[in-house]
Amino acid sequence: MNIAVIGTGYVGLVGGTCFAEMGNQVTCVDIDVDKVTTLQNGRLTIYEPGLEVFFERGIRENRLTFTTDLADALEPADVVFLALPTPPAEDGSADLQYVLGVADHIGQLLAANPHWGYKVLVDKSTVPVGTAARVTAAVEAHGLASGVHFDVVSNPEFLREGAAVEDFMKPERVVIGTSSPRAAETMHRLYQPFVRSGNPIILMDEASAEMTKYAANALLATKITFMNEIANLCDRVGADVDHVRRGIGTDSRIGPKFLYAGIGFGGSCFPKDVQALHRTAREEGYEFRILKSVLDVNEDQKKTLVPPVLDTLADARGRLDGRRIAVWGLAFKPHTDDVREAPAHVLIREFVSRGAEVVAFDPEAIETTRATFAREPLAGTGTLRYAESAYAAASGADALIVATEWPEFRRPDLGRVRESMRTPLVFDGRNVFEPAQMVEAGFAYRSIGRPTPEACTLDAETSAPLAPEALSSFTISETGVLTLP
Ligand SMILES: NC(=O)c1ccc[n+]([C@@H]2O[C@H](COP(=O)([O-])OP(=O)(O)OC[C@H]3O[C@@H](n4cnc5c(N)ncnc54)[C@H](O)[C@@H]3O)[C@@H](O)[C@H]2O)c1
Ligand SMILES: O=c1ccn([C@@H]2O[C@H](COP(=O)(O)OP(=O)(O)O[C@H]3O[C@H](CO)[C@@H](O)[C@H](O)[C@H]3O)[C@@H](O)[C@H]2O)c(=O)[nH]1
């Protein structure tokens, strides 16, 4: 099949590359000239595991091309994917300017070229209920000549960043929203090779498909948030959220996934999609109360490590001047360079505003972080610099924060980390370490929703870990605040 993908970001580039890998002829379109030039030169613009091999093969075998010219891609296409941004507008609703702008342009081109034949236009972006109808109206507004046939389909995307290629190549399900049998048949043919393992292609109307995407993300965000609140309570009552997770995750009605407590969800999807669904409900006169709570709790959760850090390191005015804080992890999750809504950034802003010297390391997301803070500068008297390795970031630090659970952070040489730190204080926002192991290794340790056993204390003079026989219990107050003696 001949496919055009409009918008060559995380979804468009992964989707286009994977469609090409499956033998389709794909043209990816973007208005960002630098991005298109980079891709035309055979270089990827995002980091996504497994993408490079398919990308290089697609280009080498001439099944994958890139252009800034929409007409070039549209003319031969049987199926046209709109993989455009839908960022939050000021009121939280999804901003449809990119989607409707491109629909309008497609309408112009189809009206001027009725001989281009039947097209299936696919909303791949996450868009509110009613958008398929609005895209149809935007295309038809150009008074299409008779003989121009098109259908608009809602085909939401469920891929996760960091596992995007795997998710796209073997989706657990494909949702197709259309009332046109002809479009349904085309979409079915296109996706059949991706669901050979027997996973379903689920056909429904456009509105239900649009709602399915928001419902999925909102439920997942709610599940995480629920566990974060359970963790916050575990901290207060002395229970261990990891045990609770295993205890409930084995109930098949609950399932083991998405039950990991931490410093909140980030990314380009959950925050904006929960907000947009909340907004849609409000526009319909319905107050979707759970969603409001999810958003509020998540904002607080991103800062859950701030009070314990301040309690241990700040002066009486809450200042962190002269303190060095290492941050491991900048991406909103592992295996991606995406830093949109990353909890690490919230913490960095907070520490820098209080005068700290922050030293950060991430295996993939330093450049994207640099770009973000260049666009939206940090405020305050502190500083941020980037280290070349996790060890270099920790060296000389008064505290280490783990903000993203990259595999390489899970099994470092703990002795080396401890020796190099000024004070061996670890705040683990993703529960990557075993509390007992950290204590044994001589760290003062705090994680999310898990009690720290026999905690380590520091020698007031030298800041060195005390000998095991001198260890006295490290104080964690009722509110979960950790204090050095
Ligand atoms: N990122 C994800 O994991 C993910 C997963 C599922 C669904 N989605 C949804 O998919 C959509 C796209 O998300 P993304 O993360 O790929 O966005 P992105 O910001 O990474 O990419 C969007 C691309 O569209 C391009 N663009 C903007 N206007 C254009 C125009 N007029 N013509 C051509 N190109 C244009 C931009 O230059 C950019 O390259 C959003 O609605 C998002 O909610 C994202
Ligand atoms: O148990 C968990 C699972 C995830 N997270 C956090 O949740 C966020 C989102 O993670 P994930 O869902 O894995 O990544 P995304 O790439 O944002 O993917 C989500 O958003 C995409 C865009 O809509 C959808 O396509 C995916 O199905 C949906 O999982 C990240 O900050 C994670 O750290 C947790 O805190 N605990």
From TrEMBL:
E.C. no: 1.1.1.22
Positions annotated to bind substrate: F158, L159, R160, E161, K213, F258, L259, Y260, A261, G262, G266, K333
Pfam families linked to this entry: UDPG_MGDP_dh, UDPG_MGDP_dh_C, UDPG_MGDP_dh_N
Binding site for NAD(+): D30, K35, T86, T126, E161, K272, R340
GO BP terms: polysaccharide biosynthetic process; UDP-glucuronate biosynthetic process
Pathway noted in the entry: Nucleotide-sugar biosynthesis; UDP-alpha-D-glucuronate biosynthesis; UDP-alpha-D-glucuronate from UDP-alpha-D-glucose: step 1/1
Any one GO molecular function term: NAD binding
Record's keyword annotation contains Oxidoreductase: yes
Protein name per the record: UDP-glucose 6-dehydrogenase
Source organism of the structure: Rubricoccus marinus
Phylogenetic classification of the source organism: Bacteria, Pseudomonadati, Rhodothermota, Rhodothermia, Rhodothermales
